[in-house]
Amino acid sequence: MAKKKSDRGESYRPATSLVLAGRSPYEYEGFVNTPLYRGSTVLYETYDDLVHHRNKYAYGRRGSPTLNALSGALADFEKSAGVLLTPSGLSAISTALLAVVKAGDHILVADTVYRPTRVICEGVLKRLGVETTYYDPLIGDGIRSLFKPNTRAVFTEAPGSQTFEMSDIPAIAKAARDNGAISLMDNTWATPLYFRPHEHGIDISIQAGTKYLGGHSDINLGTISVNKEHYPRVLATHGDLGINPGPEDVYLALRGLRTMGIRLERHMESGIRVAKWLQSRPEVLRVLHPALESDPGHAIWKRDFSGACGLFSFILKPEAAKNIGAFFDELALFGMGYSWGGFESLAIPFDCSGYRTATKWNPGGPAVRLHIGLEDPDDLITDLAEGLAKLG
Length: 392
Ligand SMILES: Cc1ncc(COP(=O)(O)O)c(C=O)c1O
Prior knowledge:
The chain has 392 residues and is of the alpha/beta class. The protein folds into two domains: 14-255, Aspartate Aminotransferase, domain 2; 261-389, Alpha-Beta Complex (Aspartate Aminotransferase, domain 1), CATH 3.90.1150.10. The protein has twelve helices and eleven strands. The strands form two sheets. Strands 1-7-6-5-4-2-3 form a seven-stranded mixed sheet, sandwiched between helices. A four-stranded antiparallel sheet has the order 8-9-11-10, with helices on one face. Strand 5, helix 7 (191-194) and strand 6 form a beta-alpha-beta unit. Helix 3 packs parallel to helix 9 and helix 4 packs across helix 8. The mean pLDDT is 96. The site of pyridoxal-5'-phosphate has 11 residues, from helix 4.
């Protein structure tokens, strides 16, 4: 936020930064929020300004006060050289990958990444002559043995999509750096509030702002935070591809930013509470949540992360398979639908066994992913208990 006379100019704690970042009320007649600017054309006042590119903004596709407020706020937060905004989490992933690879390159990708990330690797990247090797997310420093002379990038995500394996990100980022490769991470689960990828050696940190940044299931947005070394390359690709989100979605993300801290605290608290309750249930084989002490990834989570969101999975005992539909249909508070990170709770079944290649997914029973929203956790537990009762 632009300084007031009374501003003490301190470096603030995260909760305070979320309130202040990306706002300059005294530049906008004192209005608290940065206005929503629509527009493609930006007029230059004089011929001289035009030919010498003297406007702060050249063209709507290249930025506006609304877009720059969000990207600047996020860059301060991630402590990076800059943040680029895209119209979805997936376009942030594809833009970042396209910015770093060229024909003939090889990349290493965690076997447990968000599935559409694999689709980019097997589709667009393969067609452009980029080869992908998938690695076990638990590989840690062992990833060194997978580098080839043409390995250009390592793409990771922690915890793993759907199955929540915790990777040793600092070890993987260091191995990438030592081998001259660029490291990228999908950090949507923790958000930069609970894990700061750049502080752990990651070059490019990606977030589907669709989830907790928006927080209300009403936008799609992606963010790419880049360190100084690689920012020019990602900035150029982002500009050349002409990728930017619409101003309404960006405005809603700025609005979401203000409450993200307290929302996440509640998602985390309620998520852990429901996860522990599920652990105590006779129908449940296993709960996959790195914040639980019993989870195999807990030690790494505790070492590197400062919190958890509301997303985790659990495995039902195999007998549940025949009545799994009745379980889902009985749930009143958990909607069935994709995405997550909104104020509402969600539940979906999943099965990764058909597409993972470096690891085997064989959980021993039907798998369910939950997003714990902002409802009262006691009501969510009652709802789940009613669903479980239908398993017979
Ligand atoms: C981990 C992760 N990354 C990226 C995305 C993609 O975000 P979007 O749906 O905005 O493209 C998702 C969406 O579910 C996700 O779960």
